[in-house]
TrEMBL record:
It holds the Pfam family Lactamase_B_3. Transmembrane segments: none annotated. The lineage of its organism: Bacteria, Bacillati, Bacillota, Clostridia, Eubacteriales. It comes from the Bacteria. This is MBL fold metallo-hydrolase. InterPro entries: RibonucZ/Hydroxyglut_hydro.
Amino acid sequence: MKVTFIIHSCYFVELTHCCLLFDYYQGDIPQTDKPLYVFHSHHHDDHFSPQVFQLARPGQEVHYLLSDDIFRHRVPEKALENTLFVSPRKLYEVGAVRVATLRSTDLGVAFLIECEGKLFYHAGDLNCWVWDGAPRYQNDYMTKLYTDELTLLSGKNIDVAFVPLDPRQEADFDLGMKYFFQAAGAKHVFPMHMWGDYSVVPLFKSTPTYKEFASKVMDVKEPGQQFEL
C-alpha cells in the first residue's frame, strides 16, 4: 500500500483495489480511478471542507462516511445518495469497508476500518487534550475519558494508525500517542494534527521512555510525503 500525507490530519491511502481519504480540507490528492472511500471525523474547518465533493473523477465510485455533526446541507444533493452519516460507537459496512466508530474526546468520531485484510485507525480529534494551566480535575478527567475510549482498541491488530501529536500542548504533546501505544499500538503509526510543526516527531521518537515505540512512528516531515508499506 502507499500512504500519502496531504496536510494536518489528512492522509490518502492507496490499496490494491480502492483508496481511503481521511479528514480532507485542502491540498492535492493523488489521482486514481479506483473506488474512493472518504472519511470525515467531524466538522471543524481543519478536518472537513465541502471542497472534498469536487475531488472525484468523472465516473469514479465514491463513498462518503461523515460524522453526524456535519450538517446535511453542506453535502451537495448529488453526493447525498453516496453519503453515510455515522455516530459514535456504531458498526457500519459500506462497499468494501467495515467500520467501527469511537467517541471523540472533542467532537465527532474516530474510525477503525477493515479493508482488504488490513486494519486502519484514524483518531480524528480523539486525543488526550491536556493543557498546561487547565484545572487539575479537568486534565485528570480528560485523561480518563481518553484512556477509557482506547480500551475499545485493546487486542486489535492494527496495521496503520493516524494519531495526534499536537505541539500546542507543549510538554503534554506526547500523551495521546503514548496512551495509544499502551492501549493498542500499530505496525505503522503516522503522526498528525501537528499544525506544520514536524519537530514533535523526532522529539517523540528520541524520548528514552518511548524507545520501544520509535521504530513504528513514521518520519512525517512535510505535506505530499509518500510512504510505501
